[in-house]
Design a protein that fits this description.
200 residues, mainly alpha, Four Helix Bundle (Hemerythrin (Met), subunit A), 82% helix, globular
C-alpha cells in the first residue's frame, strides 16, 4: 500500500529533480541552498511584518521549494553529512519562526487582532512539537515519518493563507486549520511512538 509519506517523497522528487540535476553540475553545495532557503524565509517574515502578506505568500512557497532542494541535492551528489542534516533542521525551524514572528507583527501592528496573535502562537507551538517528536523519536532509533500534516503541508497552507489574507478572515481561518491539523499530527506521532516503545 502506498503511504502518505511515500506520496510526498514521490511528488517532491518529480517537482525538484530537474533543478537538482542543474545544481549538481555547478559548485553550489547543499548547505548553500539551505542558507539561501533560510534567507528567503527571513524575507517572507519581513514582508508579512511590514504589511505585505500577499507577496509573503509567494516568498513562503519559494522558500519551501528550496527547503526540499537542499536534501535532494545532497543525496544526488553524495554530499550528505550529519552536520548538513542538523543545519537543515535548525534553519528550517528558524525560518519558520521568522515567518511566524512576521505574522505576529502583522496582527499587532498592521491588522490588530488578539485572536490572530493567539492562533499564531498555537500554530508555532504545534509546529515545534510536530518536529520535536520526530527528532526525539529518531534519536532513540524509532522511525517517525508519520502523521497527516507535516512541514510540507504547513508551508503550502500557510502560503495559501497569506495569499488570501485580504479576503476577510481567510488568513486567521487557515491558521486555525493549520493549528488543528498540526495538533492531530502531534497526537498521531505520540501514539506511534507509544506503540513502538510498548511493543519494543
Amino acid at each position: 500500500m502506498t503511504t502518505l509519506d511515500g506520496v510526498r517523497k514521490s511528488l517532491a522528487f518529480y517537482i525538484t529533480q530537474p533543478v537538482v540535476n542543474l545544481l549538481a553540475r555547478t559548485g553550489i553545495t547543499p548547505n548553500m541552498v539551505t542558507w539561501f532557503g533560510f534567507l528567503i524565509a527571513v524575507g517572507a517574515g519581513v514582508l508579512a511584518g511590514i504589511g505585505h502578506p500577499f507577496v509573503a505568500g509567494f516568498v513562503v512557497l519559494a522558500g519551501g521549494f528550496f527547503d526540499i532542494i537542499d536534501g535532494a541535492l545532497a543525496r544526488s551528489t553524495g554530499r550528505t553529512t550529519r552536520f548538513g542534516a542538523i543545519l537543515d533542521s535548525t534553519l528550517d525551524r528558524a525560518g519558520e519562526a521568522v515567518v511566524f514572528i512576521g505574522i505576529l507583527v502583522y496582527y499587532t501592528r498592521e491588522q490588530p487582532s488578539t485572536a490572530g496573535v493567539v492562533v499564531v502562537g498555537v500554530v508555532w507551538l504545534m509546529s515545534l512539537l510536530v518536529s520535536y517528536i520526530r527528532a526525539r523519536a529518531e534519536g532513540m532509533g524509532i522511525q517517525c515519518e508519520v502523521g497527516l500534516f507535516t512541514r510540507a503541508e504547513r508551508v503550502i497552507l500557510l502560503a495559501l493563507g497569506l495569499l488570501l489574507s485580504q479576503v476577510g478572515d481567510a488568513l486567521l481561518i487557515i491558521l486555525a486549520i493549520i493549528a488543528a491539523l498540526s495538533f492531530l499530527t502531534v497526537v498521531q506521532r505520540l501514539r506511534h511512538v507509544w506503540r513502538q516503545t510498548r511493543t519494543g
